[in-house]
Amino acid sequence: MRGSAHHLIGKKTGILMLLPSLVLIGTFLVFPAIWVLYMGMTNETLTGIRAANPQFVGLQNFVRIFKDRFFYNALKISLLFVFGSAIVGQAGLGMTLSVITYRKSKKFRSFVQAVVILAWIIPEVVVAYLWVAFLDKDFGTLNNVLHWLGFEKINWFYDYPVLSIILFNTWRGTAFSMLLFSAALETIPPSYLEAADVMNVSPWRKFKDIILPNIKSYIFTDLILITLWTFNVFSPYLLTHGGPSFKTELLPIYIYRNAFRYFKIGYGSAISAVVLGINLALALVYLRLSGRGARK
Amino acid sequence: MAWIEFDHVTKRFEEVVAVNDVSFSVEKGEFFTLLGPSGCGKSTTLRLIAGLEIPTEGRVFIAGKDVTFIPPGQRNVAMVFQNYALYPHMTVYQNIAYPLTVRKVDRKEIDQRVKYVAENLQIHSLLQRYPMEISGGQQQRVALARAIIQTPNAFLLDEPLSNLDAKLRIEARSFLKHLHMELGTTVVYVTHDQAEAMALSSRIAVMDSGNIRQIGTPKEIYDSPADTFVAGFIGNPPMNLLEVEIIGYRVKLEDQLLEVPELVEKLLKPVDGKVTMGIRPEHVKIADRGELKGTVYVVEPLGAEIIITVKLGNQFLKVLTFEEMNISPGDVIGLNLNREKILLFDERGIRIEKRAE
Amino acid sequence: MIRKRRRPLTALEIVRYIVLIPILAFFLAPIVWLFVTPFSSRPSLSISLGKPTLSNFVRVFQNKIALLAFRNSLIIAVGTVVLVTVAALLAAYVLSRKKFKGRDILLYVLILFSSVVTGVAAMVPLFMMNLKLGLIDKHLGVILTMSGGLLPTSVFILKDFIDSISITYEEAALVDGSTPLQVMFRIFLPLSSRGVIVIAMLTFVNAWSNFLVPFILLRSTTLYPISIAIYTFFTEIGVPDIGMISAYSLMYTLPVIVVYLIIEKRFGFSFYGGLKA
Hints:
The complex is a heterotrimer. By secondary structure, chain B is of the alpha+beta class. Chain B contains nine helices and 20 strands. Chain B folds into two domains: 4-232, P-loop containing nucleotide triphosphate hydrolases (Rossmann fold, 3-Layer(aba) Sandwich); 239-345, CATH 2.40.50.140. In chain B, the strands form four sheets. Chain B has a six-stranded mixed β-sheet with strand order 6-7-8-3-9-10, sandwiched between helices. A five-stranded antiparallel β-sheet of chain B has the order 13-12-11-14-20. Chain B has a five-stranded antiparallel β-sheet with strand order 15-19-16-17-18, with no helix packed on it. By secondary structure, chain C is mainly alpha-helical. Chains in contact: A-B, A-C, B-C. Chains A and C meet through helix 1, helix 3, helix 4, helix 5 and helix 6 of A and helix 1, helix 3, helix 4, helix 5 and helix 6 of C.
């Protein structure tokens, strides 16, 4: 109900102040997202005769996508990847870590969190190189440990390519879920658990009856967000380049190959539009779940 | 012309009418208080004087000038906010000096005036501290100092005591009153605390849902409230408001009858039927052979005085007495009302005027 | 002397450590390499220190592309920080202090698009946008593209932050006789500096670490930021100089870790998950 800002900034000044952000976001976020739909209906390429004057081909590209076995391959791997690394890996480990450190000393929690956060903040390309080294067949740390324990060395990227990138992405992204769940646990009034302590409730029942119901909405939020992000992750490309023989070709890598390797902009746009559509659905669910609409 | 004048001012925020066609004037040197419950429009009224809001309709005058559309900084008023709004990144000294600094007053003069004001308010030892480092009472004085240093047309004080604890509040209240007497500057004061308003003001405007219910001196407001809202808002405990029926020269309260010929005769218009009867707790006396009978409900001794709540049928009546009494809940007691002090309110809650003596 | 009495470990706590230790080992193992190999005299893909040396770092400074990339990364990161911080602050102020029709819808749309338009799928139209604007293979294109992506969340966080600053400070300053510009520079900016610093630091980290945008938009080796330089180093044909790459990677990573430590220490690890792209 307060509104004294009219003395500080008038209507015109207000619009002028919004303008830089709106222009940038409009040009480099909103418009491209809409434009991609149109481009997906052309046969635009960056090389060859069609590069000069692309033609409108309607829904042809979209029809082709659903006949493309590489698309189904990529979709299948992406779903596996999201399920394995986001839902099982990140959310599972994140929950485990946040529960393990819950109601423990600040020092202990900070230490555990710092280790996990480190994996989250190191730049993408460095992380990729670290995992190339970690999983290397002859010299990698993992195989060295396995060898020392008496196991055979494993050619991870060749024999277990999907598992490799799932492990990698779990490692990379667990911090987010851990932090979100830890924050969620903080919202439970300590008296709830203290009351349970007095009643001598078992740890498992405490988790199931008190903790879980109270952080349910956070769990949904987390699952939607990490699904959305994992679905769009490109880093595995730096590890495997989608190989061997398309076994780790996630949807983003499939798009990259078509648009930026084969320069099929029209077709690449069509796939992008499909992926952005899936993103949109996830984001809408997320915004609906987070309730307050325009709030984060 | 009055020093500060509101001429049919209305302020709307989208669909909400915060101030509804309000007119009043404040004389130079007055301590004028806007009193009312939260959301009554008193703060908006103050902000309209400060220029922090622009009226939707009507005009505002300060010192004979139409300031309706003049920005706050040029109205030469000083404001103290409820949270004091002391700039956290500036020292106490810089805070007090700020109004002069932005008006590009000579540095030497600023220094003199800051020191003078600080001395006066006994905060000179705090000048190099930051607001976070001093107590609430001290912050309040710094905020006052920042206002005083401007020698403004008026001080606008928005609940300046409400962030202090009870004991400090009484102290600061006396201090404020003394300060006003010393400086003689016009003050417009906003509060929801009727005791504060009574203690400090030359005149009080009682507001409710965007309207002024009554303007008057504390005594006028206390003795002859314009309506049941004002009657019920002022006084601690407030005035007893009882539903009664006037039958001829008698008042019927629940199933008891009270002869009140003088009262009924003095009324400016004939009254018959249901009205509200108002009587202040201190104007009810407990007497063995009282004209009304009631059952004691609660006894609350407060040290100097005792508040006794008495049940009369389905209604409650509070009695304020300074005499020690041996009364306990459940006792049936007699009550006498001071006829002179009885007020009657019509079905809309407006006081029914009495002829002057 | 008071000695803290220790309870014996309960069964539950033993389980706790049995679960925790392997997890921590999993998270630490790949990272150890990053902190050991740069100082190793026999750098390889396995963790071995040998005799500690700084020669790997010396070779970074002898590498022209590596040095050039440092400069390029700085240009891109600083450019993005300035653009995002200034634009976001201006917009966030209006969105926080002025109520106007459609404001909530605007915020909703911004936040929706910023979560939807991401990753490679977004890079296809963004590449075409840059192509049409003549911004391919230019730092400006990278800066503008990253800014567009980072702005919505930055605006949002800053708006939340400004909402938490009581408007009475600005009002008091107005009544005290300040001009609007004086209110902004003397009162508002000092009060909002914490939020602005956080946004600037988070933007820096994001722009500094970003791989995908320059990877798609830049062509010339001389324009590559560090992320692309490292990528070309380890995918190059021939035997990669592991020692140099690891030293370079460590130098590249340190500013990021420092920024997060500062944020953690000064502001608490504020939970701004959305901004970590």
